[in-house]
Amino acid sequence: MAIETVPATRGDTGFTPAMAEFPADARPAHVWCWQRNYLDPAVCDGTNWSAEIVYSDRSLVSSGDNCFPGRDGRAIPITEDGTDNTFEKFCRAVARLVGREFH
From first to last of its 103 residues, what are the pLDDT tens digits of the chain? Predict the structure, then answer.
């Protein structure tokens, strides 16, 4: 998952209200507890994802193949999808950030 930002022009920081709200929107997804990699080796074909969040004081790089972060960073295999909506909360926060549907 990559979110591109438009370079700031003179007098424009490029900072939007959605960017200011993103930390609070993403908090229910517990992103700072996420592991670097999530993998379900039992599934050979399916869904992969990646996320990189960078702030001045901390950052996160995480990815997964057929597995998603759950509450407290635990791994949720795609075969158990629906048992924990933590990743869905993150996708909703990203959707608000970019101003369009995201999943």
Answer: 545 444 444 455 667 888 888 888 888 899 999 999 999 988 888 889 999 998 889 999 999 999 999 988 999 998 886 778 999 999 999 999 988 988 7
Alpha helix segments (H runs only) across 1-85: 17-26
Q: Which domain holds residue 70?
A: 34-98
Q: Classify residue 103: in a domain, yes or no.
A: no
Q: How many domains does the chain have?
A: 1
What phi, psi does 26 have (nearest 5°)? -85, -15
**13 Cβ partners below 8 Å, 6+ apart?**
none
Contact 77, 40 (CB under 8 A): yes
Q: Is the model's pTM score more than 0.85?
A: no
* Ramachandran angles phi, psi of 67, nearest 5°: -155, 145
